């Protein structure tokens, strides 16, 4: 069982050079610290370094007035955020996770003696509205109004790595140029926004409540029958929609195609099964893969690691 760190455990905080602020857990827990720098009124840069002396589950509770876009770039190791509602966000070396939130309630999990380094950008609603316009920013942050919503989890691009490497590695670096730091931070933001679907709502097809109910029914069918081979025509027939409306409706309501949504459901379910000790072949079968090799390839593409690397309880 991980050692749980409540909000009541004191964190040492100090203001460092160049405007950085360091927050650190007690030394007996290992090297567990986060350095933060305010880039502007509505954007912050955070550098996290954790190497705990035992498995940790750090309580996290944050309530904001406005939703925030979080871009987390994994530089080393891996960690996990598990919300009280059961939603999970995974952070891994070589991968970028984009999420939105307004209220965070859950735990951040770190493994014993596993070095974790992450770079995180937090961008508020006003800053996004300034660059994207109010309508587009509102749509982007819509999922984060009630809790944590993952928008993307993908391999970090070469362009992003170049900007990361150009940022100051140490807070005490007197040579760091604030203007260049701001430029690289905004470039990282622009790079991630380019990969998100930011089409305006007016370009989306309209759906009546009856169609929306059918789309939700179709999603539920995918979730309950993910271990079966289900085609788009079969899914459309099952809920009484034509194929075109089903495909358009999924892009509008879930921001994904039926195939992509099914893949995400299968991969997340497979991860949960593997964590409980389920064998790879069995997990593959339970989420709809006839051949374990096909499952392993899909799992590796989706998460960036092989299924055996998550076998058994880790947190």
């Amino acid at each position: 069982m991980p050692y749980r760190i409540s909000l009541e455990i004191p964190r040492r905080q100090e203001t460092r050079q160049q405007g950085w602020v360091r927050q650190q857990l007690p030394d007996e827990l290992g090297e567990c610290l986060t350095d933060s720098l305010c880039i502007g009124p509505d954007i912050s840069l955070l550098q996290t370094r954790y190497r705990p002396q035992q498995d940790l589950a750090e309580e996290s509770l944050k309530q904001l007035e406005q939703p925030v876009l979080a871009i987390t770039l994994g530089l080393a190791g891996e960690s996990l955020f598990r919300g009280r509602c059961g939603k999970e966000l995974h952070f891994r070396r070589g991968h970028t996770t984009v999420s939105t939130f307004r209220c965070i309630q859950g735990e951040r999990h770190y493994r014993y003696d596993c070095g974790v380094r992450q770079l995180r950008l937090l961008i508020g609603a006003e800053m996004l509205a300034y660059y994207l316009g109010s309508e587009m920013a509102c749509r982007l942050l819509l999922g984060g109004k009630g809790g944590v919503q993952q928008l993307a989890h993908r391999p970090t691009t070469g362009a992003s790595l170049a900007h990361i490497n150009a940022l100051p590695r140490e807070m005490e670096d007197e040579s760091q140029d604030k203007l260049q730091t701001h430029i690289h931070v905004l470039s990282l933001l622009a790079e991630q926004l380019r990969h998100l679907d930011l089409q305006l709502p007016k370009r989306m097809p309209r759906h009546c409540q009856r169609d929306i109910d059918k789309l939700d029914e179709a999603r539920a069918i995918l979730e309950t029958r993910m271990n079966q081979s289900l085609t788009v025509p079969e899914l459309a027939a099952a809920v009484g929609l034509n194929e075109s409306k089903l495909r358009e409706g999924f892009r509008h309501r879930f921001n994904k195609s039926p195939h992509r949504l099914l893949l995400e459901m299968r991969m997340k379910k497979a991860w949960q099964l593997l964590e409980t000790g389920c064998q790879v072949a069995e997990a593959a079968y339970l989420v709809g893969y006839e051949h374990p090799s096909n499952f392993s390839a899909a799992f590796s593409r989706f998460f960036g690691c092989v299924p055996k690397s998550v076998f058994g309880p880790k947190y």
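The longest strand covers residues 56-76. The longest helix spans residues 258-275.
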